[in-house]
Amino acid sequence: TTEANPDSLDDDKLRVYARYGVKRMSLGVQSLQNDILKRANRAYQSEEKVGHMIATAQNHGIVVNTDLIFGFQGDTPTRFRKTFSQLLKYKPDHVAIYYLDAHEGFEPDEDMLAPDVKWRNFVKVEQIALAHGYIAFPMGEDGISVVGKRQGNQVLSRFFGSYLPSLFKYL
Fold first, then answer.
1. Cα–Cα distance between 38 and 86 in angstroms, integer?
2. Which of 21, 28, 72, 90 lies at a C-alpha separation of 20 to 30 Å from 57?
3. What are the tens digits of pLDDT across the range 117-171?
4. Can you tell me whether residue 86 is helix, strand or coil?
5. Residue 142 in 3-state DSSP?
C-alpha cells in the first residue's frame, strides 16, 4: 500500500510500484474544483491528471482509493457533489469522503458541516453512488465511504456478511 498525491505520480513510477508489489494506492484528490484546489495549495492538480493516474494504476493491477474533502471554505454541497460525480467517471475502486477538520491554514465552512447539511449531502451522495454502480455508507462522524463493485466483495463483506450478494443485485 502507498499513498500519493496525483501530481507526484507518473507512468514510470506506477510501473515501478506494481513491479515491487504495491497492490493498493490511496490518492489524495481532495477536490476537482480549481478555486478550492488553489485555496488548498493544490493549484497544480488537474482533473485530467487524476483520471489518467487512476486508469494507469488500475491497468497495473493497483486498487485505487481516492480521498475527497467536504467542508472547504467557498465550496457548497452542490459543488461538492459535482466533484464527486466527476471523480466517479474515472471509476476509482473506493472514494473516502472526509469532513474537513480545522487545522493550520484551513478553516472549515461551519455551515456545510452542520449535522442536517451533512445528512442531506450523504443522502444525495448515496443516490449518485448508486447511479454509478457504487454503494455509500457512513464512516461514523468522520465521513462517507463509497465502494464500487470491483472492490465491493472485499470491503463490504466485513460490514454486511451474507447480505452482500443481495445488495449488489440492486446496482
1. 18
2. 72
3. 999 999 999 999 999 989 888 888 888 888 876 555 455 544 455 444 555 554 4
4. helix
5. coil
Q: pLDDT by residue (tens digit) across 38-76?
A: 888 888 889 999 999 999 999 999 999 999 999 998 899
Dihedral of CA atoms 143, 61, 52, 64 in degrees, nearest 10, equals 10
Q: Whose CA is closest to 71, among 146, 148, 7, 142?
A: 142
Q: Which of 15, 11, 13, 48 is nearest to 29 (CA)?
A: 48
The neighbouring-strand residues paired with 68 are 30, 97
Phi and psi at residue 69, in whole multiples of 5°?
Answer: -115, 130
Among candidate residues 52, 67, 70, the one with its CA nearest the CA of residue 14:
52
